[in-house]
Please model this.
Amino acid sequence: MLSADSSDFAPVPPLGNGAPTIDLNLDRTLKQTFGHDAFRPGQREIIERSLQGGDILAIVPTGGGKSLCYQLPAIVRSGVTIVVSPLIALMQDQVQSLQANGIHATFLNSTLDSQESFKRIQALLRGEIRLLYVAPERLLSDGFLELLDRVRDEVGIGGFAIDEAHCVSAWGHDFRPEYRQLRLIRQRYPQVPVTALTATATDRVRLDIVDQLALRSPFVHIASFRRPNLYYEVRPKEKRATYREILTRIRQGGSGIIYCMSRRQVEELTAKLTADNVTALPYHAGLPGSVRADNQTRFIRDDVQIMVATVAFGMGIDKPDVRFVIHYDLPRNIESYYQESGRAGRDGEDSDCVLYYSAGDVGKVEWLIQQKTSEDEQRIARQQLRQISDYAESTECRNTIQLRYFGEHFEGNCGKCDNCCNPKPIEDWTIEAMKFLSCVARTKERFGTNHLISVLRGSKSQNILKWGHDQLSTYGIGKDRTADDWKMLVRSLLHQGLISETTDGFPILKLNALSWEVMKQQRSVEIAIAPKPKLDEIDDRTGSTMTGQALFQELRALRKKLATARSVPPYVIFADSTLRLMAQKKTTTLDDLGRIAGVGAFKLDEYGEAFVAAIRAYSEGNAADLSSTHLTTLELLKQGWDLERIARDRGLQVTTIYGHVAKLIETGQIVEVDRYIDAETRSRVDAAIAQVGMDRLTPIFEALNGTVSYGEIRLVCAMRSVSGSAAADLTGQSS
Model:
């Protein structure tokens, strides 16, 4: 297999004059080269238009198979395809993935020394390269353009692919001035088709891309921005509970990204997770470039589970098997949130996107906006803040809001967000609203949310007494509601425009015309009530989305071993979805393995025997399937955790963890129970079982007068079950 820094390219037929007949059986090429059984929506049409030689603008969301739209044409048509990529890490990952499929691709960038660059250029001029990745700065340099002239004359240029094309537009969320100069390639190579691709672009950005790149009557494909494999959820941010929820989700397994607003928050959260035995690394602009690069590589290669990052960890994160993205703080705007959350589930597998929201975060962003010197920038930033706040507080379908932002209509129950799956009940809180607004009035509209809540709840703090607010008629009239209840009401009042808030960095609540309508009982107030967090529900829902088969875990371990030996990310070997199909179908022959989606001819030859051997060994060992939650418990037990600590840390009942241990005993993962139950108790349970049998646990529990827990009883039953199975096996062999 070719590695990213390999200079030994196997010769292939010339790509220019005299090239072999092109195989335009796209389905066959798709399967043999990339291992896929079918095209994703829109891919075939884009590829066919590309092979016809016209310009293309393709808006394909993350996870929609954007790269294939220029990679497949590159391997079936004559001439080398030049791919413009903005980041070194991104082009290296792309090249590794292509080489893993047996495709001759390479890159030229500043990471290579002069000798290695020369070798790659010579391979390019010999017609041994199908795709060449370069940054826009290098592409437009005088020396490189002269090289491209030689390539055009001696080998042929099949096309240009401009990846992350939104960078060309000043209206885009990630504008890069150097992309503006790419129109020079149209002037220099007018007959070479250009394909521009990006994951997100509003109407304004799309028009700007066409104009700036001088695309000629391009075929425009705009795929749906909806990502049906992502589950979107907004949860209230409560410092201690939020951390426990995050830890619970991490324990379910899978790679995850946690976004924070500040560098300090990144460092603090990373340290806290590390102390709780989570493998996590930080990523922010304050770290040296070498440290950021190393941390990113370790995350992509599954050396660590979690990346805690600011938005500096952005474009170019080409890791398809991120199972969850958590926003610990409020994102900058809806487009940024779509991009950042969209780094989950790029392989099409179910993944979670959770945003934690608090009024305090809104206040922080408001303060940051105030620091901007341009009034126009402040105005735009406030509009974006209102949009993302509305998204967080809305009871409307999350997908509907996101898609509307990009000009796409979607209506109905998406079935993949908290508002659709668990709609919040609507309650009439007119009386509570009148109490709160009256408190605002009686404190002369000079205070913020927390102070007003303290008045309503009858606080005796020094600040309340200093202002004499313990003498107000509204003092203590809100003791029947928690502080969180009142904060929820305030958020809803602000969202509905029933109260105003100053934006000077010290948000003070002000009454408006609608406020007085409420207080005069001319307007009712209804709010959506957010359910209280239930960690066991989080555990059940996320756990159900994760495959927990023991064979799948073994195949992932094999993939990691092979990837480490080749210095490539594990997903370059096979995607999680492919491993899951192998585990489900238990393919024990090369022919069967070759029919699995994601297994192409090159990968079958390269890795087939290793994976078939692992599946055979598993099948022969009759290993039982385990869920991810069982495997999480097993891992913590191996680390020396007791059952109570595991239950407390994961937000589960101790009896649930006892059930996990029983399952682990039954599957042979644990062979003794002395660590979890003492010999005397075990003997008593054995005696009770002798009396009432072990078909049901309740008779055993009652026979012991409730002095032994159900969990301990389950462990003894599991041990007896295993012992009985072993005896039966021996009996069968002897007969």
